[in-house]
Structure formats: structure tokens, C-alpha cells
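Rotation project, supervised by the postdoc (A.L.). Task for the rotation student: set up a whole-complex structure prediction and record inputs and outputs verbatim in this book. Inputs entered:
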Amino acid sequence: MSSTSSLVSSTGPGHARILSVGAFRPQRVVTNEEICTFIESTDEWIRQRTGIEERRWADAETTVVDMAQAAATEAIEKAGLTPTEIDAVIVATVSHPYQTPAAAAILTHRLGATPAAAWDVSAGCAGFCHALAQASDLVRGGTARHVLVVGAEKLTDFTDLTDRSTAFLFADGAGAVVVGPSDTPGIGPTVWGSDGGQWETIKNKRSWIEVRAAEAAGEEMVWPALEQEGRQVFRWAVWQMAPVAQKAIDAAGISVDDLSAFIPHQANMRIIDAMVKQLGLPATVPVARDIAQMGNTSAASVPLALHRMLADGQAPSGGLALLIGYGAGLSYASQVVVLP
Amino acid sequence: MAQSEQEILAGVAELVNEETGLPVESVEMDKSFTDDLDIDSLSMTSIVVQAEDKFSVTIPDEDTKNLKTVRDVVTYIQQAQG
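Outputs recorded:
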């Protein structure tokens, strides 16, 4: 008898889908006028360049895990589950301020979902779509039955409010979905990838090692806030990512005409508009434009936008939505999903 | 195949018109993209990426920063084609 014949591998239900969505939007609304007290700019300039009218900032005491918890609680309730029925928790974030342990482990404990497996995903603004791909395969493969996927960011902790290229952009929030078994396909194939050769286009200004070295040398502390090369990122995002989104549509075996919603990462309204144009999206397909009210919330933006579209009735339950996340890395992931 | 200055100017003017709605006649050689035509860096990037396709040239971001006037773009494309 061979030594492998006794090994059992997991088998799953074959299909997975998003069962529910939850969101947390911090109470404090920050207008462009308020941003202009930090940087020399105008409401008109910010709107024209980014489409952002206002954004939400969490207060000093609110953490990434707090926001994740609020969004997750809504998603679990809406799925008709109890926390103990969650087998795995994945948090996509770049702003949880502990390098270890993962925000997901703390969140799992807070939710009462212990001993669910818990880990964070660091794929910048593409983190949620990466985590969703993992969740789908975990469920389909039988490793987990219900997976909580959260995108949560407190980007204001890593924003330089004197940086004219990012101060108006970044914001805070969290979105969550529960992924579970399905009789029919609910999450299409994920098209993803990375281009680390361009890693310096979106990054922290300093590594922690450099922060420590500067402090030891008695230099002025430079906080590792996020910075980006806007022009380079814009070019990559529009002309490289629209073909990725098209591949996700093709991989799902559908056409743009079958879509009930397009929910891209909310990076900049100009990127969204240019992407819609590049994709040749019919004017009848609703496009998520949550950025106008929420700013850029990195890994939280796709589930937040998804939540708003469903809540406002812009996208129908059961319809097909094209998701795409892209950002630091440079990393990207896109898939077509059935709306819960 | 290299195109004439006038052909390239007409092509660039079309791209500017598609991106911003500005009339093609307003896109003159000595106009500055930022000061005269009020074109910001993202619109400029859109125009440049589409110009790459239209004229079969490559215009990297580091070069785009130095393209201040319409003439700069036309000359760049002409040299890249040559």
C-alpha cells in the first residue's frame, strides 16, 4: 500500500457566493473646505481632479479593528449566521498599526468567532478582491464553510496632511462580506497579478527601520505616511487595468452587457471614468461612485461601494457585478460576482 | 512612417478635443498645455497614452513631465517616429 493512499483531502460544495454585505462609515464628514485648511487648494480643484466632494474620518480612538467589527457584525447578521458559524476571517488592510498580530485575529476574538482561522492580506487597494478570491476557493475546496472577508482602513493615520497630492484623497472606513456555499456559481474566476518593478509608485515614505535610524541620528522624525506618483499610477490604473477587468469578464463567460453593476476600487473619479470608457461599458450599467462621499479608502472601497449600491437600489440583488481592485504592489485582482 | 508636423499637430489637436472638448483650432503650436489650455496632469497623461497609440511611439512618464507646449509634443513625436 502506498503511503499516500490513506490521505484524505477536503472536498467542497463546488460553488461559493457572497451571502451578505456590511459597512462602517465613520460619522465625521470632512469637506473639501476643511481639507483646504491643511493644504493650499480649493473645493473646485479637488472635485475636478478627483471627484471627491467629502470623505469620512474616524476619530482618534477608533481603530481599524473597531471599524472592521462594525462592518463584520452587519454582514454576519444579514447572512443569518452567528459568529460561531464563521470558519475563517480575512482582513485586507494596509493601515492596521501592528505589523503583528493580524487585525483578523483580534477581530475574530471580538466577534466571538474564535477559533476561526484568521489572517490579514496586504495587497494595497486590491486587498479585498484578493481576499475574496481566497474565500471563494476556501469554500469551494471545502477548507471552510463560511468565510468573513473584510476590507478595513484608517488611512488618516498614514496620511501626511501637508502633502498636496494625497491629503484630500485618503479616508477611513470598513466593508465586509460573508462568503458561503452555493448551488450555482456566485464568484467568477479571479484575474490577478502584480508588478513589483513599480513598487515605489505607491508606498510608505519610510520603512520602520529608516524611521528608527533617523530618530537615533537625532533627525526630524518622518512618519511613514503613504505617498504616490499620481501620474504613473493613473496611467497604469486606466490602461493596464481595463484589460484586466475585460479578462475577468471573459473568464466569467459573460459580456459587458450582462453586467448589473461595475464596482471598481474607488481611487479617483477620473480613473473610474477613464476605465468605463476603455471597457466600453454600456451607459445602462450602473457604476459605483462612492468616492464622492467617501474618498479613497484603499482595501475598504470595493465592499463599501458594493454596500452603497445595494442599499440605494442602484444594483439589483442577483445581478452580476464586475469588481476590480488595484494599487500598491503594484497588485491587482478582478472578478465578476453575483450580488447578494 | 514619419508624419509631417502639420499632420501630427492635427492628430494631437483631435486627441485634445476628445479629452477636453476644446475646439481643435485652439490647439496651436505655441500654446502651453497648463497655462493656455488648462489641461491638468491626468488629462495630459490620457492625451499622451492615446498619442502613443495614434502615432506608434513610446512616451514615458519622465518625458511627459517635460512636454509643456503643443510644439514640445509634436516635436517629440516627430523625433520618435524618425
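Student's summary: DSSP finds four helices and no strands in chain B.
Supervisor addendum: Chain B touches chain A through ten residues (CB under 8 Å).
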